[in-house]
User: Fold NOL1/NOP2/Sun family protein from Formosimonas limnophila.
Amino acid sequence: MTEQNKARKSYSKKPSKKERLASDLAKKERIESGGVLIREDGVAVSAVALAARRAALEQAMSEEQLQAEHSDHAHERPTRNKHKQRAQAGLSPVVTKIEAPTATGRRLAQCLWAAQVLLLDVLKFDAAADKQVSKYLREHKELGARDRHIVAETIYAVLRQKRVFSNVAQSGQGALERRLVLLGAKTCVPDEQMNAAIEPAEWEWLQQVSKVDTSAMSPAVRSNLTDEWFAELTAAYGEEGALQLAYALNQTAPLDIRVNTMKSSREAVKIALNHSGIESVDCALAPLGLRLAGKPALQKLDVFTTGSVEVQDEGSQLLTHLLGAKRGEMIADFCAGAGGKTLAIGAMMKNTGRLYAFDVAAHRLAKLKPRLARSGLSNVQTVALDSENDSRVKRLSGKLDRVLIDAPCSGLGTLRRNPDLKWRHGIDSIARLSALQASILNSAARLVKVGGTVVYATCSVLPAENQNVVDAFLKANPNYEKQDVRAALAVQNIDLPESAISDGYLQLLPHKHETDGFFAACLKRVG
Ligand SMILES: C[S@@+](CC[C@H](N)C(=O)[O-])C[C@H]1O[C@@H](n2cnc3c(N)ncnc32)[C@H](O)[C@@H]1O
Assistant:
């Protein structure tokens, strides 16, 4: 092995136990000093906000408990202390089982109970909800496929609509979490099945609250966001725009895939999917995208195992087209994470040239490895950076043709997939994130040669993480010029609607474009 190859290998190796401990310690110190925690999936969460949210939740729960203890039905509730004791011991909370009144309802009653146990853990907001749901379902093999779907959908429905649900759930009796679960389950379980699985009084309550006129609630409550997030969206989009955006962000996301042109074509994949009983339609804007009907499991299909497709939201696919990668170029995907966009860029380069996948998280880059193996790409070099100012970045200064910066951000544009984010972060994280984003943009932009292209992107819908960061960069760096994203995409025969362009920047929004919320700026180095 050459020296160069040895060095390359060590950049991308899995972190040792010692490295992981050191990184955990650094993270802890960063959190304790009020910093931003970058979550497992790349989304940044403020530790301060997390602590505040947990305190607010505990207060809300204890107020609820107090109310219940003073009500006539106090004896029906499990005590808060019991929850606390079990939580301290690392055990799942005790939740009273409510038996189904009919034999047919027994199975669903079990699911509702499971959802209530899980919800109590999820609402602590000390871990990502998707991870908690997966862990719970992994540990409860007794739940069948449909049961798992109901449990997961119920939890997600509560996370999406928690504010309206909590408002509605002020009436009724018993544990608040049980009422939240009933409201969540009602969104994914047919009425007659619900009726068979819950107590008559609960059914009656559900019927009553279904008639509650939510339009009488304040816009912030209807948005199902915290007051501070709703105010932030209102400042950017106006109250009506913020409500429409929030409403769309509170829906479930469709399942999009990108066809890997190294292995197949969109038509061939469509036919193969059809043979497996999966319907798909072409994505409206992304030329290699297919939108699937429902949420079929893909992992075992040939098109997936052979690397012909990757799961990728249509908006995310458009960001990689914006970069306009070509054969033989030198390109960096600066915040590559698990490589969703790296794979798309590598295929656009037809597996030629050199594509650097940079990230500060070695464990995320490690997840790119099996995806690379499936994709058939061999032009990608993963590099785990110490920071955006790593000397290995500096050494490549002025040498690259293009750089994509998929910056760490609040992730507000992905609430359809990660609804817990809106409760887990607070507005205080934004100032720290903007500073990090500016620092990454400054460092990464230096990589391109004169005439080279930089695409700065986020999955945030907030100007503070988007146009404000880029505008400030352009002001301080007159040797970079903004390129209109419409022109950049038109070169690839992608005709963006007017609504997706704001001051030359790309702004994808779920209520307008049926994608996750994404922002992107295309910059050219001119001097
Ligand atoms: C939005 S995620 C990237 C998602 C990825 N591009 C994809 O398509 O799957 C942001 C990434 O930025 C990384 N990151 C955070 N701080 C960074 C820094 N200072 N330099 C480089 N990467 C950083 C995070 O580890 C995270 O993987």
Remarks:
- The first helix runs from residue 3 to 12.
- DSSP finds 24 helices and 15 strands in the chain.
- The pocket of S-adenosylmethionine is lined by residues 38, 42, 334-338, 340-341, 358-361, 364, 385, 387-388, 406, 408, 440 (CB under 6 Å).
- The chain has four domains: 1-53+314-527, 71-217, 221-250, 254-312.
